[in-house]
């Protein structure tokens, strides 16, 4: 690339472990820099037990089903991102597959985390995907972060049927971005490489 990398983008199929890797990389960075000042958020699925009754012993676990997603800040605050529950209040929310996206709750929690504060050394954005991009304010906030000299660790979805979301393509092609594609063979071994790269970015700021 013509310019030094200032951010790491993780991509890969759903469920491959992008969020897990983000959190493990953050753990490694904090081990090396205990006072590291980080802003951002991550997303994860909400699951409920699928139960079946039929005897006097009571209900038994039959498995789990994902019923939504949460957005979580790095200090543990959380809000709904999307849900399979449909009610009068959610009927007009935008949809991704079977999920209704709670744009207002996402913006309430995530947008302040993208406002640059004094002393911030790293941004984590998990993820820049279709649900998050229903917020018209989200991607402009991401672009404002990119204008700073603060390193970024972010996740993006893989192109679907060969077509990228325009905003995701813009990130993927950013001259300061280094893109890693996760798969089942490299996801457990790539943490050290990404952690080292981010540490180098942090140390030259």
Written account of the structure:
This protein has 205 residues and is α/β, with parallel strands linked by helices. It has five helices and nine strands. It has helices spanning 18-32, 103-113, 138-146, 166-172, 191-203, and strands at residues 7-12, 38-52, 60-73, 78-83, 95-96, 99-101, 122-125, 152-157, 177-181. The chain has a nine-stranded mixed sheet with strand order 5-6-4-3-2-7-8-1-9, sandwiched between helices. β3 and β4 form a beta hairpin. The chain is globular and about 50 Å long. Mean pLDDT is 85; it is low at 53-62.
* Major β-sheet strand ordering: 5-6-4-3-2-7-8-1-9
Proportion of beta-strand residues: 25-35%
| Share of helical residues | 25-40%
Derived structural class: alpha/beta
